[in-house]
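chain below, 476 aa
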Amino acid sequence: MTIEVPHIPWQRAVFCNRTLNLRSIKAIGYDMDYTLVQYHVVEWEELAYGYAKKRLLEQGWPVESLVFDPELMIQGLIVDIELGNLIKANRFGYVKTVFHGSHPLDFDQQRKIYDRTLVDHRDGRFVFLSTMFSLSEACLFAQLVDLWDAGNLPAVLSYADLYSRVRATIDDQHREGRLKEEVARNFERYVEIDPTVCETLLDQRDAGKKLLLITNSDWLYTRAVMQYAFDSFLPQGMTWRDLFDVVIVSARKPDFFSSRSPLLEIVDDTLLREVSSDLISGTVYFGGNAALVERHLGLTGAQLLYVGDHFFGDVHATKITLRWRTALVVREIEGDIKAEEDFADKQCKLDELMREKEDVERQYCHVRMLWQRLRKGRGGEDAKAFKQTVDELRGKLENLDHRIAPLAQASSRLSNENWGPLMRAGNDKSYLANLVERHADIYMSRVSNLYLETPFAYFRSARGTLPHDAPRRSAV
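prediction:
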């Protein structure tokens, strides 16, 4: 029998940082927002921005003319609340791109400010924007920095004060539920349907995995959006509730993974009942903690996989505290991969020119060194002849730089004109990529990417490369 294995487009692949055998996973926990349920990013973030702007208008802030710009910011940036800057750093924390408010800083300005500064997300000066929900927040903060610099926000004391007010305004909307009430009134506009997610979870359940839904969203919203996104695509007579062994809402992640918060059972839409015994399969709970989940399942550590989109709320806390296996959903990498594929021919040309430049640079350095020795009387040859060669090689380098510059600039702006690809900072990995590499065992653009891999997949990490690795040689 010949079995045809389906092709997996690279944009929809599962990428492995740390070898993971799905056959050894006994239970899989899922976040909901931007994980099991995907949103139309621009529409959602524009809605969040609009509510925040309205709240600020009610407080007398002069924000009438502000408009949400979906291209201004990307996921994975860092807010410098001390200076009112937004930063993209490389994996070592060196700053590579800076915007002050909504305006880019040139290289000299950037170097002057950050020459002696390394970005560290654990430093209270820096706030890491790790989810898609951060786009409206970052855009609004940047625009308000411009207003404060112009003297139009006299009640604001500092950039840190400004950021805290923006953060509080965004948080208030989520606490009050106004955003999700609007989304629930118009799911067609805000929710992106992906029927393959249902097939993915059905396959996992049929393969013997226990499935859990652990979300910070409240019960009424969770029930409504899951019904909309799942029920129409499940076998007749089945609902989304049948997929999950346990559903936990209002989980308060990341504290959920480290606290001993009490667990309440949701009896109906308005009644909560304290739980004094172990969890019961098929039940919906409010709050609680991960220790109760582990006790209910009889599993710990590497037997469980948790899948989410929030680096700190889902992946970091789970890995550090519980040593569960982790999967991160990074929606933006689909666009990054597509942009890199479209740029592939130009990237090959850029790589070729850079190799040529390296060869000419090496020649230039050696000839210049010889010329310097001759000028100091440390050789018998004609120094003028070497000077001519130095000038010729310098001219070649200038010509190469002229050809390289537009290609390098275009490469740095793939996906987003301001910040470039999510996981890269120049030729290096971005700060976000480094954190993902350290804490997410696997990552992907959507949960449904697991469908073609099946629940029996064995994900193997690639052999890590080092600068001193010998270049590969073709067999003779």
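The longest helix spans residues 344-375. The CA atoms of residues 359 and 433 lie 31 Å apart.
thats it, cya
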